[in-house]
Queue: 4 jobs
Job 1
Amino acid sequence: MNIMTAAEAAKAMGGTCSGEASFSEVCIDTRSITPGCLYIAIKGDRFDGHDFVAKAFEAGAAAAVCSRDVEADGTIIRVEDTRKALIDLAAYNRSKYQIPVVGLTGSVGKTTTKDMVAYVLGQRYRTLATEGNFNNEIGLPRMCLRLDDSIEAAVFEMGMSNFGEISRLTTTAKPTIGLITNIGVSHIEMLGSREGILKAKMEILDGMDKDAKLVLNGDDDMLRTVIAKNPWRVVSYGIEREDVDFRATDIKQGEDSISFTLSGRKKSWEIKIPVIGIHNVYNACAAFICGAIAGVPASDAIEGLANYVPDARRQKIEDRSGVKLISDCYNASPDSIRASLSVLCQVPCSGRKIAVLGDMFELGDYAETAHRQCGEAVAEKDVDMLFAVGKNAAYYIEGANGKVTSKYFEDKESLADALKNELREGDAVLFKASRGMKLEEVIDKVFSQQD
């Protein structure tokens, strides 16, 4: 952010200021205080930032935002609610800049699509993009506070687990372009149904001008209902349907890349991306369209997609001890598991295709059905073996119904031991589960002694 005075910040947050100071950065953690920053004392479930205000000043903070009295010497901005103050200050900072801002959400593919959008926008603009897990009601405001005169475009990822969260994020970020990748079953435990998930995702419109474009996956059955109701503001893309605004055809999958033709109403473009999986064609289509709306020439967008480098925390393909390893342990949902299974089947190998699947979380009453359906998906694919671990993973085995050699494990230790004995040179193995399963620990145990 550009330099701001404490008085200006207090006004933006609806607070009162005692003292004078200025700053160009905001911190909420005293472990990462930078000299001259504004420290906002956030109260969490297990901590209270007010207890560390004095420490923040000692570390060099120029001012602090508090909702109660504290024993500290320095400029204090007093507000009623420091979380709300963070959001209000972020919204104020965002309002200063008339730049293209892409706000995106969806059940699957948010982070990959966000990164692709950033690569496309980055061909023409100095672009700010959501980092790490800064996609929630604490993280997104902090990203908005990084906007300054040097930034020419931004792309903000918006995550959620319940109603109202996307609405609060979008009214802070004020996207000029909205994007919804798909409507799956992630967070169905809280939202009740796919209809509920759609309703929550559509809150993205709450922070958008009425003439701002909304980019939607036209192959998604739930999003089709939105397209029908808002044809004037929606730009659709897809692979299967012919009535979308942009359609990917002639898809050719290589060992480590995909090429396809993207056709609009009047023009077509040849695109190549350095990742595999049909799901990434959808992601690339969305990124290209967002770039076009933001004024990025098609040739630049194509170059940006060609230069895309996947996030190392997400799906990673590498050779380990003669085995083709597909590590995708960051998160999991039924849709993303199907996509990862497709990648497993596309990876060339001389041996067997092995799927190692752990539990998917936050599915509520749908958990049994979802795991069983994913087991059915394994049976439908060219997969030779299924290893399942976790509380609900036995339903993977039930879904596979004996059509694939399957083994169930109650714990990761026994799974790792079995894989050490089973994997052979030439095999390809996929590891996929929700983040809480920490399936990367199994990978470490299996391959650490073999490398």
Job 2
Amino acid sequence: MKNVITLGALVISLVLIVFLYVRLSDTEQKLAAAEQNAKDCMQVTFQLQNKLTQATNGKTPDSLQTRN
């Protein structure tokens, strides 16, 4: 009986570890997608600031130059 309880606890622990691993993997993928989205938004913002500055002032400051 004691071995069955120990085995049950080990199985429950293993299931919990697998469940948490799957959740962590999913969260990491969502974080990577969010970081890429933020990076893309920042690049578009810099490009729009660059175009706006060119349209209003002419020369673009170095801080607003399009990054390649």
Job 3
Amino acid sequence: MPDWSDLQHDLLVLIINRLNLIEDYLNFGIVCKSWHSVVTKDSFNSNLPRVPWLMLAEEEDDNTCRKFFSLYNCMILKKRIPKASGKRCMESMGWLITVGKDEGEISLLHPFSGVQIELPHQNTTEHYELNQTPVPWTFVLKAVLSANPSHTSDYVLMVIEGHYQFLSFWRPGDLLWTRMRKFPHISDVVYFTGHFYVVDNSGCVQVCDVDDSEPTKSRIIAELAPWIDGKYYILESLGSLFVVSQDGVDIKYVKDDRERIPLTHIQGEDGEEEKMYTYKTRNVLVYQIDLDTCKTTETRDLGDRAFFLGANSSLSVQASQFPGIKPNHIYFTDNCLGAYLHFEEGGGSDMGVFNLADGSIQPHYDGVSLSRVCPPIWVTPTLC
């Protein structure tokens, strides 16, 4: 009887072309050497539906590797990514945007192929001295690609940078960052229908075009509620624009350590007594924006969609395509720098799944994964 490891190459190709999820695709390649030989860039179907994996925080005993948690099958994949060691990471289109902890160098890094693209240093942004952050790894707050660098060299990388949260962009070949001067205090950005749309800390939604002869020009699309105690996110879903308000990331003293992961507040200069603190998200609101009328409508029904928010490019997926993904839910990671930098353990405690229908929050990862530099983030898996 033939051994399964001796299956003909053509038959293996037929099998792999029928796989629907990238998790199954990668698992196929670890069965044996002959099966692994079929798992190539050319055989990979780039149109496969993908749901983000949770890239866990760096572990002290093995800082060259990262673990990825799959919501689909609750399995953990360990991947060696030495170029991300000791760096803060953000994500867009399956690429990591890394910022060095000590020197603040910035790169684009594909975590699965190892391809790296060096970017101009943060000190090439306009008036850098007046816009620095207390530590260099927090200078870039968010990064969003207009197109996948694996497929084209015609793309723009837009970042939210510095203490004043300005917008700056970079194109391949540029030697420095270009500042969008009229865009301070930005909370999130998305590339949609050929334009970059942003939401600022006051809930104002604007559109800007880097290809315009005057890239500092903008147009206000909508204005939401005033400043909230939390963060705004902006994303596209099924051809529509949405803004999400993640409200109530507060810091409080913990008396019952069963409530949340207890965190140690960094002592101030006054030598205040050490206590155990924590913080958490209280509520999430979702608004749909009509670009024709510039009207906003609050919604509690995303249908079959699920949103993924955090230090990644905000993303929507069709839940029914992925076992284990809940429709009408918001999957979020800890992205509140203003809170977790106050704690010795860092961020990673405020993660969960928000049920938009009833307002409840459940965990999506039961383990503990904390870091001051790079807490867990969502990463959409791609092979190229």
Job 4
Amino acid sequence: MNGTPDRDASPEDRILAMARAFQASRVLLTAHELDVFTLLSRGAKSAGDVARQAATDERAMDRLLGALCALGFLEKKNGLFANTPESERFLSRDSEEYLAGLAHMSQQFRSWASLTQAVRQGTKADPGPIDSDDGQRTRDFIAAMHGRAKGNAANLARLIGLDGVRRILDVGGGSGVYAMALVREAREATAVVLDLPKVALLARQYLREAGMQEKIAVVPGDYHQADFGSGFDLIVFSAVLHINSAQENLALAHKAFAALNPAGRVAIEDFVMDEDRTGPARGALFALNMLVSTTRGDTYTEAEIFGWLRRAGFTDLVRKQTGPGSSLIVGRKPS
């Protein structure tokens, strides 16, 4: 796909290419919002046909489709537009490999437009997907998180190591995707997913579709306020710490410690920043994503996360790389 800065270009051209990179992103997201790729998955069409089915202006749609061809998302032959194999695979809602997270990215695009204001005032200007009363935003957000986690969840379960694990608590567990992977890996285990009531409703749906509702319970509640209970062998925080302030994360570490059995473990999967906070790039950009979409969220360093865990009483802290900029951190409650 085109639209990214060329490393062989001059410094001026690289800067300008990055400054206008939003154009290619906006073209893709607009096409997704108008269901262009899904419409074309049912056969090649003229710009007029796509415009009528998408309820848009024909000339404007023709220009959008032309830009999509230029960017490598579509092909044009004999006046008809068609998906490329890659677009058919990942961008059509009819595909099993459809990237459901694009709907959430459309919302992020709007939130990022307020970055200047957020930097000036130190907090977001727009409610985030979970804070919002818009149920569709919540569904889009959870679908995005589920899609991103599917490939990583099984690997995370293996990295944690689940020998002897019987009871698992997945805090802020979203769709339950990590709880499902953990229970599949530790076949004798059961799990509890704790998340906000409107997210819990969606989690139950995902669990029913996966046939996992008998082994995984869903508890609605705000993890800052809810009682974690007791008797757990493993407590998981996946993509949770970055939503919260440092003080809130310290409090969560204490709550996890109290809810674990002796020798139980806490597992944290998240972006982990270099100590000078200048990298990795994905984590640095995600810190700004938290600025425009949460009131207190941030990305944190290993020293910060280890510090919370040690203050809560955890020992034997280890960190393993799980992806670009992200890591798994595991700590143990003494026996």
